[in-house]
Amino acid sequence: MFRIYSYILFIFLLGQVGIAQDFNKEKLDQYFKLLEENDKFMGSLALAKHGKLIYSKNIGFADIEKGIKINDNSRFSIASISKTFTASLVLKAVEQNKIKLDQKLADFYPDITNAEKINIEQMLRHQSGIHNITDDPVYGLYFTQATSQTEMLKVIKTAGSDFEPGNQTAYSNSNYILLSFILEKIYKKEFAEILKEQITEPLKLTKTYFNLKTGENSNEVNSYMKLIDWQISPKTSPSVSLGAGGIVSTPEDLIKFAYALFNGKLLEEKNLKLMMEIKDGYGLGLFSVPFYDKVGYGHTGGIDGFRSMLFHFEDGNYTYALTSNGSDFDINEINIAVMSAVYNKEFELPDFSTYAVDSSILESYVGNYSSEMLPLKIKVFTKDGNLMAQATGQSAFPLEAFEKDKFRFIQAGIELEFETSKNEVTLKQGGAAYLFKKD
C-alpha cells in the first residue's frame, strides 16, 4: 500500500540572511558526493535564478536491475506536485468561462456526499470534507490496478464525508481526483490532452505528461524503497492517482512550469494571487514554506518510492525542484542544504559514520514499547542481524547505530535512544522527544 505524502520544510526563523553573492556550488557538490558514495539518495534536482539553471545534479539509477543510471532525460512521477498543475488547469478553465470557483460539485457529481454544499474552491483548498481515499486500508488492494472513472467515483462516494464543507481543512487526494474528472467533463477531453493543450505545449514542457499506461516511455524511472537493500516499489496506476498524483516530469521542466506560473506567464495576476492565498495551511494547489526570513510557494509529493519538491522563492527569483526515485536520507535535509547554498547560509555535510554493535547487545533492545505521550506502539526486533523498528500501522524500518545505545532512521529523521537499565527508549523526531517504556 502507498500513500501520497506531503512533505513540508520545517525551518525556524533564526534571523536575516542575504542573497548569496557567490553560489556555494563546491560545498553542494561535496554534499551530493557523500550521498552518492554512501548510497543514500537516487534522483535529480535543479536550481534556477530568473528561470535560468545555475545548478543541477543526477545521482543513482533509473533501473538498478539493468544498471541504467539517471540522466537529464530521466522522468519521475512528481506525485502531489500534480495538484499544482491541476489547480492551474482549473483556474485556466475559470479564465475561459468554463467553470466558476463558487460552482457546486452537484453540477457534476450530485451523488457525492454533500455535493450540493461543496464548491470548486473548497475542493482546491482541501475544505470540502470529502474523505481521503488513500488513507483507507482497502486502498492497498487496488492502487496498482487500472481503474475506471466509474469505479473511482464509487470508491469516493462510498468513503463519504469527514466534516461539513468549509468548516475545516483536511488534505484529501479525493478532491483532486474529482477535479480531474470535472476538467474532462467541461473540456470534453481526457485529462492528458487538457494538460498538453493548456500547459505543456504552450510552455514547451517536452518531458512532462500524463499517461494512463505507465512505463511506455523508456526514460521513465523505477522507484525503490530501502530496507536493507533497495527494493523496487509497486507502481500506482495513473488511473487511480490522476491529477492528484499521476503526472510525470523532470526537475528542469518543473522549474520551467513554476517560473512561468509565478512570473505571470500562465495565469492572470488575480488568479495567481488567489492560488498563493494561504488559508489554514493551503492555497489552491500550493502551500508556503519558510526559510529563515524568506517564503517559498510550491508543493511536495510522495507516491510509491518517489519523492518530489517544487518551490519558488520570490526573493531572488529562485526556483528549486527535486525528484527522487529512492531515498535512505531525510530529504528535508537536502532542501535545507540547497537553499542554504543559495542564500549564503552555513550548512553541515552529512556524517554517515556508524557505530558497531555486537549482535548479542542488539537483543537487549528488542521488545514492544508504548508511550503515554503518543497513541502508538513501537515494536523493536532483529532481522538478518540488523535492528528494526515498526510503529503501529506503519511499515518496518531499519535502525542504524551511530553512538552507544543510539540508533537512527535517517530517511525520516528519526532517532531512538535506548536506556536498557530502565527498559525505556526515547524517540526523537523534528525537535520533539517522546518517552516509550517496554511492555
Structure notes:
There is one protein chain. With 439 residues, the chain is of the alpha+beta class. The chain has helices at 25-37, 82-95, 120-124, 149-159, 173-187, 191-200, 238-245, 251-262, 269-275, 331-342, 359-362; strands spanning 41-49, 52-59, 61-63, 68-69, 76-77, 224-226, 230-232, 248-249, 287-291, 294-303, 306-313, 318-327, 367-370, 377-383, 386-391, 397-398, 400-403, 406-409, 414-419, 424-429, 432-438. The chain has eleven helices and 21 strands. The strands form five sheets. It has a nine-stranded antiparallel β-sheet with strand order 16-15-14-13-21-20-19-18-17, with no helix packed on it. The protein has a six-stranded antiparallel β-sheet with strand order 2-1-12-11-10-9, with helices on both faces. The protein has a two-stranded antiparallel sheet with strand order 3-4. A hairpin with a 4-residue loop joins strand 18 and strand 19 (414-419). Mean pLDDT is 91; it is low at 1-21. Residues 44-328 form the Beta-lactamase-related domain. This is Beta-lactamase family protein. InterPro entries: AmpC-like, Beta-lactam-related, Beta-lactam/transpept-like. It comes from Profundicola chukchiensis.
